[in-house]
Design goal:
single chain, 440 residues, alpha/beta, two-stranded antiparallel ribbon, 16 helices
């Protein structure tokens, strides 16, 4: 019997089936290594390389050609949507979830309870009731009734979300006027275009192309995916498809040649954490000096926008769109990171029922008294958190999500957009059910 790796896989209750290295009892995947010898690849930090092999690796990194190609594109501008030097330190550290948690658990109990009280007060004074806007447009009936190509991966919860995103655009006459009611002369002079941010496999754009007959689709996604909708989209007549493999933070959308002189609609389903903020800057923010516009004359213009937010726990102060709003409400940078970490509690509860109540009848009780609780550490804040019920944590998490998204709505309105924050699907379809929708 051939030798095999001696690493035990507890979930499979067997040893790894790979062959071991010649000088080890383990395979290459499970050989013990010193973390001190491994460093993130400068080209793509998602993978690591031995420090002694770095010089050689930089010449043959699989992502080297992609990085070189991207740097030559006119729409690539490093960090153009990150927030600018005037808003935050460019080199500010990224706060991981573990760092945020450790910061919260290092608080004294009175500080922790004071922060919760501040969140409750602020939410009650500014964050109005978020209206429900569950819309299933007639145009999407083929998808809802599963009368589509069976090669497409079909999950009802995703179809309901995609249809409601498009339906909310339709009732606000972004899709209806632009794709259905426009006169022939208007259609001739302006090319219909949709840009899907954080596109993934592109199935939101696929539904839009099937149901609304658009002419141009641009998919923006920094990762590479299999089983994409691109093949099906390319088979459509009179549809121009372009996929930009780029981080939204680095995308100057006004410099995309295929969008020059067009009205476009921006869409995104579940843009995680800071991806929502950089997308809003990419589409809406207009700097005082627009060199590209002055040189080229015709630039793209936003027709409407619908972005489903999610993963608020990943939000960063460095990229958040409305730091002024947070600061004016009396929250510090550290408290913002605490608020973002609390949002993870909103999706920890049972998703099969209704959304935890946020009305005035619900009281978030103090789990322990300030006098009897320990001062700090795991035994302090940890004891407070442990004594909170799942519902209490979910309610606090949803309050924090509302605060973050309210700041985004207010920023969009300051930029001249008619904007709303709505719940676009029921909580039992997805607990991440907030949608930013608006138009100029």
């Amino acid at each position: 019997m051939a030798a095999q790796c001696k690493f035990w896989l507890p979930k499979k209750r067997r040893f790894c089936a790979n062959s071991p290295l010649s000088d080890s009892i383990y395979c290459g995947n499970h050989t013990q290594r010193s973390d001190a010898d491994w460093i993130p690849c400068p080209i793509d930090p998602s993978h690591c390389v031995l420090e002694e092999n770095l010089k050689c690796h930089l010449k043959r990194c699989p992502l080297l050609k992609q990085a070189q190609f991207l740097s030559r594109q006119p729409f690539y501008q490093k960090g153009v949507n990150a927030g600018g030097d005037e808003e935050a330190d460019e080199f500010e550290a990224i706060y991981t979830s573990e760092m945020k948690r450790n910061m919260i658990y290092a608080m004294s109990v009175p500080q922790f309870l004071e922060l919760i009280a501040k969140i409750k007060t602020f939410h009650a004074s500014l964050c109005d009731h978020i209206p429900e806007s569950y819309i299933t447009p007639e145009a999407c009936s083929d998808w809802i009734n599963r009368e589509v190509d069976r090669k497409f991966p079909y999950q009802e919860k995703h179809v309901l979300q995609q249809a409601s995103i498009l339906g909310n655009l339709e009732v606000r006459e972004v899709l209806k006027d632009h794709y259905t009611n426009a006169s022939d002369s208007e259609q001739d002079c302006e090319v219909s275009a949709v840009v899907e941010f954080g596109a993934g496999r592109g199935y939101l754009a696929q539904m839009l192309a099937d149901c609304y007959g658009i002419k141009k689709v641009i998919l923006v996604e920094r990762r590479s995916y299999k089983l994409k909708a691109d093949r099906s989209l390319r088979q459509k007549t009179n549809l121009q498809l372009e996929r930009l493999r780029i981080d939204i933070e680095d995308l100057d959308i006004k410099a995309v040649d295929s969008l020059r002189g067009t009205l476009y609609t921006a869409i995104g389903k579940h843009l995680c954490g800071p991806a929502t903020d950089v997308t809003l800057r990419c589409c809406i923010y207009q700097p005082s000096s627009d060199t590209y516009a002055s040189e080229n004359g015709r630039i793209c213009r936003l027709r409407g926008l619908a972005v489903a937010t999610c993963c608020h726990h990943l939000c960063q102060w460095r990229t958040y769109i409305n730091k002024k709003f947070i600061s004016e409400m009396g929250f510090t940078r550290e408290e913002f990171h605490a608020i973002s970490w609390f949002t993870s509690w909103a999706v920890d509860s049972d998703h099969g029922g209704s959304e935890p109540c946020l009305d005035d009848s619900f009281t978030l009780h103090e789990p322990v008294s300030k006098e009897t609780a320990p001062e700090s550490g795991e035994g302090g804040v940890g004891a407070v958190v442990k004594n909170m019920s799942c519902v209490e944590r979910a309610v606090l998490g949803n309050m924090c999500k509302d605060i973050i998204d309210t700041g985004r709505v207010l920023w969009m309105r300051e930029q001249g957009l008619k904007c709303e924050l709505v719940k676009y699907v029921p909580y039992n379809v997805s607990p991440e059910n907030r949608l930013l929708v608006g138009r100029p």
